[in-house]
Amino acid sequence: MYMDAVVFAGIATVLLMVVFFVGVGVFVMRDQKAHGGKTRKKDVKTGGTAI
């Protein structure tokens, strides 16, 4: 396989996107763990909170 600057740039771009989305996933999981108990689902039929 011919390796030039374009191939290295493409590999670097894909790796940076993977790192970014993993970072977003870690942030969401930590935020959900920290603030998970504060929100409750509303019951659509009765208008009250679900158990």
Structural topology:
Elements: H1 5-35
Which strand-content bin applies to the residues? under 5%
Order of helices and strands: H
Q: Tell me, briefly, the overall form.
A: rod-shaped
Biggest sheet: strands, sense, closure? none
Give the distance, in angstroms, between the N- and C-terminal Cα atoms: 59 Å
Number of helices: 1
Structural class, please?
Answer: mainly alpha
Level of helix content?
55-70%
Low-confidence stretches: none
Estimated radius of gyration: 21 Å
State the total count of DSSP E strands: 0
Mean pLDDT: 84
List key phrases describing it:
51 residues, 1 helix, mainly alpha
Can you walk through the features of this model?
It is a single chain. About 60% of the residues lie in helices and about 0% in strands. It has about 50 residues and is mainly alpha-helical. The longest helix has about 30 residues, at about 5-35. The protein is rod-shaped, with a radius of gyration of 21 Å. The N and C termini lie far apart (about 60 Å). About 0% of the residues are buried. Keywords: Membrane, Transmembrane, Transmembrane helix.
